[in-house]
Amino acid sequence: MMPPRKTTAPRMKISKLELTLSRAKIIEAKDLPNDKIYILSRVTVKDVKTGETCEYLLVSPEESNFEANKISGNLTHRKIPPGQDERGDRGDQVPAGS
Length: 98
Fold this sequence. Notes:
- By secondary structure, this protein is α+β, with helices and mostly antiparallel strands.
- 16% of the residues lie in helices and 15% in strands.
- It has one helix at residues 8-23, and strands at residues 42-46, 53-59, 70-72.
- A three-stranded mixed β-sheet has the order 1-2-3, with no helix packed on it.
């Protein structure tokens, strides 16, 4: 007797992709506003302090890979207050009672 095949995960992934595609609509490039970026757009960002630039490809969240310069549009943008890192930690303060 053959063991049961594990097809649940791939089938779920296919179903999710089919649902996503069912909601998609084709838009001509000429009809896209030129003041926004979209999936598969290549963007170049510049560090204004150092002048260093880096190019990224905007991809879906499932394809994002920062090491490969592939980022998704689901990034949280917020200004980090002086003295804090991206997690909000302040290295110079110790909680009371420590």
